[in-house]
Amino acid sequence: MTSESPRLRSVVRGLGAYLPERTVTNADLEKMVETSDEWIVQRTGIRERHFAADGETTSMLGERAARAALADAGLEPGDIDLIIVGTSTPDYTFPSVATQIQAALGITAGVAFDLQAVCSGFVFAVATADKFLTSGSHKRALVIGAETFSRLLDWNDRTTCVLFGDGAGAIVLEAQPGGGTIADRGVLSSHLRSDGRHRAKLYVDGGVSTTRTVGHLRMEGKEVFRHAVGMVTDVIKDAFAATGTSGDDLDWFVPHQANRRIIDASAEKLNIAPQKVVTTVHRHGNTSAASIPLALSVARDDGRIKPGDLVMIEAMGGGFTWGSALIRW
Ligand code: UT7
């Protein structure tokens, strides 16, 4: 709940994103699997996605996004004492992507770790960083979503291989004093959920402790779709209840970008006007934990998201995991 006494807030100081150079259109995919631009656009809204080049890893994408966010914030790497990377596609089983980015940025103070919540990774990472910053234990966090989902795809499974892309996005959160009301800038609420009973509906069929391989992404798309709208609307209603807000109060709704139909159905159920919905799935595909900071970046850079705006982020993904965070920009 939001108290009305002075307290620390995690305020967004900077934002950055990075997309690999290579763009793969639906027409390109038509040459690789039995699919059509018409089917992909109609069922998902996706028109193109980016794929990392050979040798281009998740930590490299994340580092580019992190450097852009630091430049945007006007900060140096040494100003950061917490790095959290939401990812399910790490360069190595260990060490974490976060410690590799920490080293690449030349940071030796503070702490860096990965957080694995699949497509909900960025929302989970924002909520986790917020707990660190508002407790007073850390001052400035790099929160990164970075993925190379192209490396998990089974090119014999057209029901999944057309859906995903690679990319990274990052924000810098800084602990600043606030008044304890929803007029404060920063993270105003976060609500995270998970239910492991749904494992088989969206998973990777390999892993260190099972097959000793990386494996491929498997999804019962219809089942995931069926749960997605209800789950995300639940955690957004939790955010509204905790902050005394409604869909009318939002300036921008920046959902995880998996499927245009899920985004539209969620917005409609929550009475969020279509012009407030930020959609990038047509250009990025589903980039898992990277999709929200990539979308934030597009909407901030084109002048939509401005300081003081009320922004709702939400995601749902494998596990299942799902969550929302309400942020005053
Ligand atoms: O980020 C984590 C969360 N993930 C999601 O949110 C994904 C949720 N699910 C979805 O987005 C949708 O369920 C999909 C886009 C994956 C699939 O859409 P759908 O409307 O549920 O289609 P479907 O799976 O029911 O398939 C319909 C038809 C099938 O043919 P029949 O059985 O009706 O003859 C499929 O074989 O479409 C066929 N199909 C394809 N056709 C052309 C499936 N994939 C393709 C394809 N190209 N790539």
Enumerate the spans where pLDDT stays under 50 for 5 or more consecutive residues.
Answer: none
Number of domains: 2
Could you report the average pLDDT, rounded to the nearest whole number?
Answer: 97
As for the CATH topology of the largest domain, it is: Peroxisomal Thiolase, Chain A, domain 1
Total strand segments: 13
Class derived from helix and strand content: alpha/beta
Q: How would you describe the shape?
A: globular
By CATH reckoning, the class of the largest domain would read: Alpha Beta
Reported CATH architecture of the largest domain: 3-Layer(aba) Sandwich
Between the first and last Cα atoms, what is the distance in angstroms? 19 Å
Helical run tally: 10
Produce the secondary structure layout.
Layout: E1 7-18, E2 22-25, H1 26-30, H2 37-44, E3 48-51, H3 58-73, E4 82-86, H4 97-104, E5 111-115, H5 121-135, E6 140-148, H6 158-161, E7 166-178, E8 186-194, E9 202-204, E10 217-219, H7 221-243, E11 252-255, H8 260-269, H9 281-284, H10 291-301, E12 310-317, E13 321-328
Parallel strand pairs: 4-5, 4-6, 11-12
Antiparallel strand pairs: 1-7, 2-3, 6-7, 8-13, 9-10, 12-13
Helix pairs in contact: 3-4, 7-8
Bound molecules: oxa(dethia)-CoA.
Concise synopsis of the structure shown:
With 329 residues, the protein is an alpha/beta fold. The chain is 32% helix and 26% strand. It folds into two domains: 7-178, Peroxisomal Thiolase, Chain A, domain 1, CATH 3.40.47; 186-328, Thiolase/Chalcone synthase (Peroxisomal Thiolase, Chain A, domain 1, 3-Layer(aba) Sandwich).
